[in-house]
Please model this.
Amino acid sequence: MRIEYVWLIPLPPLLSFFIIWLFTNRSKTLSHTVAIVSMAISWVLSVITFLFALTIEHFGQEVFELSVPWLPTGDTALNMGVLVDPLTAAMLFFVPLTCLLIFIYSVGYQNYGKQLDPHDAVGSPPHNGVEPMYSRFFAFLSLFAFGMLLLVVADNLLLLFVGWEIMGLCSYLLIGFWYGRNYADPNQITPRQAAVKAFMTTRVGDVAMMLGIVYLYFQTGTLSFREILYNEEVLLQLAETPSYLAGLSVAGLVGLLLFAGAVGKSAQFPLHVWLPDAMEGPTPVSAMIHAATMVSAGVYAMVRMFPLLSAGWHHGGELTAPMMAMGFIGSFTALFAATIAVAQKDVKKVLAYSTISQLGYMIAALGIGAYVAAAFHLITHAFFKALLFLGSGSVIHGVEHGMHHAPGAHEHLDPQDMFNMGGLRRKMPVTFWTFLIGGFALAGFPFITAGFWSKDEILADAFASQQIVFWVLVLSALLTAFYTMRQISLTFLGEPRTHSAEHASETTWTMTTPLVILAFFALFAGFVGVPESFPGLGEFLHNLGNFNRFHEFVGGTLLEHPEAVEFNIFPLVASIVASLGGLTLGWLVYGLNPLKQGQADPLAAPLGPIYTLLERKYFFDELYDYVFVRPAKWISEVLTYRIMDKIIIDGFLHGVARAAVVVGNFFKDELEKKTIDNPPIYLANAIQWVGKSFRVIQTGRVQNYLLIGMLVVLAFSGVYYLMLAGVLK
Amino acid sequence: MDISQIIFLIVAAVTIISAALVVTSRHLVHAALWLIVTLFSVAVLFVLLEAGFLAVVQVVLYIGAIAVLILIAMMLTRKAMSDEPAQANSQWQISLVVAAAAFIGLAGLLNANAWPGLTTVDLSGSLTQLGMALVRPDEFVLPFEVASVLLIIALVGAIAVAGEKK
Amino acid sequence: MVPLSWYLILAAALFCIGLYGVLARRNAIAVLMGVELMMNAVIINLVAFWRYIQPTLINGQVFAVVVFAVAAAEASVGLALIISIYRRRNSVVAEDMNLLKW
Model:
C-alpha cells in the first residue's frame, strides 16, 4: 500500500535538525535550505497521504496502522507506531503546510541576505543585519516540526506524549531564543524568564497528563488509540469502573487528568499565564508554536481522546465529568481572554489572548460533544491565526525598517506597540489586505471567511445542547470582533502616528508570499465544512462532488458517527449579529476617528478602573507570583538550602567530625600514651638500669677481674664436686 | 714420725711462714727478701725430693736472676722516699676468704685420695739422664729448643717494652 | 717416709698464699711476687709427682725445667711492663691501672 511510508513523515525535519546542528551551522544558506527542503519533503508525503486517505470509503474503519514493539515491559511491550485515521489525515493537511510556510517566512524575518551587523550581539535581536544565530533558529524549528508531526501520526498515548514533550522543549528553546535580551524595567519579563515560565506552567499540566496516562495503562494494559478508543467494550468498562476518587469513573478521572495536560499546553484558564509572555520569542515562533500547532496540540489530544472523555455519554444525555470541566473552562476562558485582549497595546499580545480565547472555543465545543465542530475550528483557526501572526511580524518588521530609515535621529520606541503605528495600509498594502482577511476570519465575517463556518457550527451545536455555553460564546464572539477591528484600525487605518510608521515599507517576498497563501486558505478552507443541512449552499456544495464532506469524513474517526445538528436559524442570526456588530462597534470607536499621535485609548477614560483591570490581565501574574512562585522560591532558598542543607545536614556532619576528633584525642591521650607508648620506654629504662647495675664490675682493674674469676671457679668447682659426690644431681 | 718427716715439717713451716710474710710485708723490700727465703726453702725441698739439679737451678735461676730482677725493678720504680701506705688493696678481705676457701677445697680433695708411697730408687744417674733427654732428638730436644726460643722472645720483648723511647 | 699428700698440701698452701698476694697487694711488683710463689708451688707439685710416681722416667724433671724457663721469661716480661708503666704514669699501684674501665 502506498500509505506505508507514513512513518517517514516526521523524520526529515529530525534529520534536518541534526544536519544543521552538526554540519551546516556556519552556513546560513545551507541551513535554511536543508530545513525548508526537509519540511517540503514531509509536506509532500503528507499531501499524498491525505489525498490517498480521501479516496478510501469508510476510512474510519479501515485505517492504516503500523506498530513495532519498543519498550519491553515483562511479557508485553509498549509500542511505537503510526496511525492514519480521518482525524490524522485532516491534521496532516494543514500542519506541514503551515510549518513549511512559516519556515519560508522565517528566511525573510531573520533578515537573510543582509550583512551581519557588528553592533548586533549574539543572543539579542538584530537591529538591521541578519540574525547571528540564524542556523540555530532553523535547527530548533526543524526539531519542533518533528515533534509536532510525531504527535500527529502517533498511534499510542506514549508516543503522543513524547512528541508533546519535544514540543515543550522547543517552545522553551525558541521563546528564549534571544537569551541575551534584557530590559531596563525589572517588571518587564525577559525572554529567558518567559521561557522558564512557559516551561514551568505547562509542566504542571504535563504532570497531570502523565498521571492520567499511567492510570489508563494500569487499568487497560495498553495505550494504543485503536485498542482503547475504537473499542466499545473497553470504553464501557472504563466508564463504569469506579476510580480512586469517589464519584468518578476511571474514564472520568483519566479524562480529567488528560484534560489538565491540555489546559497547560493550550493555555486555558488557570494555566494561561505563559502564552502572552511567550510573545518574547521571534514572531515566526509565535505563529507556529503558539497559534497554529503546539497550542492546538492540546486541543488535538482532546479531540483524539474524545471517545474516552465522553465514555458513557450519548447525544442529548448527561455530560460526563471531563466534558463538564471542558465546557466550563473552555467557555470561561473564551470570554475571559477576549475581555483582556480588548485593552492590550502590543500587537502580538492581542493575538496571544485571541488565541487563548479561540482555543477556549474549541475546548468548549468538545465539552458539549461537538466533535467535528471542534476539529473544524482547529483547522481553520490554524490558518487564520498563523496568517495574523505572520502579518503582525511583517508589520513589526516594517516599523523597524522605518525606525532605521527615519531622517534625523533614530527614534527608540517599541515597534510592537500599536499606538506607535497607524496608516500602514498605504505603506504595506499586501500585509494590510492579508491581515484584513485574517482578521475578518477571526471575527467570523459571514459567509466568505472560513472562521465564520467553523464558529457557526460550534454555536449551532452549543445552542442545541447547552444554552449557557451558547450565550457565553456569542458574547465572546462579539468581543472578538470588537478587538479585531480595534487592532486593524490602530495598526493600519488613519495616519502614521510616528516617524517610524511613516517610513515603513513592505517586507520581502519571502514574508509576503506565505501571507497570501494563508489568506487563500483563510477564505476558502471553510467551505469544506458547510453543513449539508444549510439552506442552499449546503446542497449546492454537496452536489459539487461532495465538497463539504468534512463532517462525514472526520466524523468517521469515531465508533459512532456523530449526527449533524439540524439547521436552526437562531444561532446563525446570533453569530452574524455578533460578528458584524462587533466589527462595526470597533470601527466606530477606533476607525471612524483614527487616533492621533499621543492620544490615549478612547476606552481608557470611560471604563476607568475596569480598563486597568483588563490591561493588567486581572492581575493574575501577580497573584500567581504571590501564591506559587514566592513560596517555591522560599522553600528552595530558605527551607532546603539554608535550614535543611546547611544547618541540619552540614551541622550534623560537622558535629560528627568534631566528635571523631574528640574520640581520637581521647584514645591518643588516655589509652595510647599509657598503654602503648610507655611500656617500651619502661622496658628501655629497665634494660638501661640493668646495664648500669652490671657496669660496676667493669672496674678496669686486673685484680678485680681475677677475684671474680676465682670466685666463679670456686663456685663451679664446688657445684661440680657436690654433683660428683652425689649430693646434687 | 721419722726423721725425714720432721725435716720436712721444719722446711715446710719455714716455707709457709716466709711466704706469708712475703704477701703481708709492709715494706716492699722486706717482701722481696722474704721471697728469697721462701725460694731457698723450696730449693731445700727439691733436695729432699732427690732432685738436686733442680735445687741448684732454683737457686741460680729464681734467686739469682728473678729475685734480683725484682729488686732491681723495685729500685727503678721507687718514688722519692715517700710514705708507704698500707700494702693491702680494697678487696683484701674477700681475697683472703677466696684464698682460704681455695686452700680448704684443695686440701680436702688431696686428702681424700690415696696416693702411692715412696719407692726407693737409685737416682744417681738422673742428671745424665736429664742432660741426655734434653738433647736427644727422639726425646725432649724440641721442647728444649722451643723454650730457648721463648727466652729469646722474652728477652727481646722485655727490651722493647722497657727500653727508653727515643 | 713423707707421704705424697704432704708435699701436695704444702704446694697447695703455697699456691693459695701466692693467690692472696696476687689479689690483695697494692703494688704491682708485689703482685708479681705472688705470681712467683704460685709458679714455685707448681714446680713443687711437678717434682713431687715425678719422685713418687715415676722416678725412673726423666719426663717429670724435663717438665720442671721447661716450667722454670717459662717462669723466668714471664717474670722478666712482666717486670719490663711494670717499668714501662711506671715511666708513663709514675705509679706502680695496681689499683690505679684502670684504663679498661667502662
In short: The mean pLDDT of chain A is 84.
